[in-house]
């Protein structure tokens, strides 16, 4: 009577069949013999032997050198010992030296040094005066002198001085010599256009420099002269030309009035 197979028994049989097949395959592979061909290089083997010989020769050479250096060191040490032994056996020289002489102390300190002033002569050169302006006889100009100031009136666009103008400036210089503490103010003016202020100032400056040169050549130091090139006058005076130079002494100038405190 045949019984049906269970699933477990079917799997078991299949695994047994797989194992038997694997074992048979392994036996067949192991039974087959593998053959290999080996070639031997005789020259390479000989070279290996030669290299070993070379290394042994080099090692023997280094060993000999080390022995030689050790012998040289030993000789040096022996000679050094002999030299030190001979030095120690020499008789020591006598160290009996005369005592050092101490310096003597002076009874009094040295005198105080006296420094004399150096006589240095520095030549003093006074500044060179400006050149004296030339007198132009044809130059037009006038002179108006008052108790407080002197006006030198020039021609329009002119900076030249005539004889009368030059004489007035010289007379003013003589009065300054009598008042050494007084200074002089030169207020120079010129006509011009309000759109071009540089031109009248330049003309006024040249006029003031001409009068300043006359004063310096007459012996008035430049430190006492104050030149102001104002150019166009701020206020126009009736019957007075704007082309003029006003000479004012400081001791006669109007002093500012004191305002009372409110």
TrEMBL record:
<feature type="compositionally biased region" description="Polar residues">
    <location>
        <begin position="84"/>
        <end position="97"/>
    </location>
</feature>
<dbReference type="InterPro" id="IPR036737">
    <property type="entry name" value="OmpA-like_sf"/>
</dbReference>
<dbReference type="Pfam" id="PF00691">
    <property type="entry name" value="OmpA"/>
</dbReference>
<feature type="signal peptide">
    <location>
        <begin position="1"/>
        <end position="36"/>
    </location>
</feature>
<feature type="region of interest" description="Disordered">
    <location>
        <begin position="45"/>
        <end position="102"/>
    </location>
</feature>
<feature type="domain" description="OmpA-like">
    <location>
        <begin position="154"/>
        <end position="241"/>
    </location>
</feature>
<keyword id="KW-0732">Signal</keyword>
<protein>
    <recommendedName>
        <fullName>OmpA-like domain-containing protein</fullName>
    </recommendedName>
</protein>
<feature type="compositionally biased region" description="Basic residues">
    <location>
        <begin position="52"/>
        <end position="74"/>
    </location>
</feature>
<dbReference type="InterPro" id="IPR006665">
    <property type="entry name" value="OmpA-like"/>
</dbReference>
């Amino acid at each position: 009577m045949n019984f049906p197979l269970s699933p477990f028994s079917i799997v078991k049989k299949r695994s047994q069949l797989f194992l038997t097949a694997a074992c048979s395959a392994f036996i067949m592979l192991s039974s087959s013999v593998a053959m290999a061909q080996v070639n031997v290089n005789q020259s390479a083997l000989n070279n290996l032997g030669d290299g070993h010989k070379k290394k042994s020769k080099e090692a023997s050479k280094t060993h000999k050198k080390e022995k030689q250096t050790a012998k040289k060191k030993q000789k040096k040490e022996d000679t050094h010992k002999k030299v030190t032994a001979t030095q120690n056996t020499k008789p020591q020289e006598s160290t009996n030296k005369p005592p050092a002489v101490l310096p003597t102390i002076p009874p009094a300190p040295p005198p105080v040094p006296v420094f004399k002033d150096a006589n240095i002569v520095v030549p003093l050169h006074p500044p060179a005066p400006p050149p004296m302006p030339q007198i132009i006889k044809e130059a037009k100009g006038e002179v108006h002198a008052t108790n407080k100031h002197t006006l030198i009136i020039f021609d329009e666009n002119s900076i030249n001085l005539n004889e009368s103008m030059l004489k007035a400036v010289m007379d003013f210089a003589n009065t300054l010599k009598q008042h050494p503490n007084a200074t002089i103010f030169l207020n120079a003016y010129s006509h011009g256009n309000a759109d071009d202020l540089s031109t009248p100032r330049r003309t006024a400056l040249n006029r003031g420099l001409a009068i300043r040169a006359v004063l310096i050549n007459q012996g008035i130091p430049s430190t006492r002269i104050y030149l102001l090139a104002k150019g166009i006058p701020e206020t126009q005076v009736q019957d007075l030309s704007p082309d003029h130079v006003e000479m004012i002494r400081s001791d006669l100038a109007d002093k500012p009035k004191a305002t009372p405190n409110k």
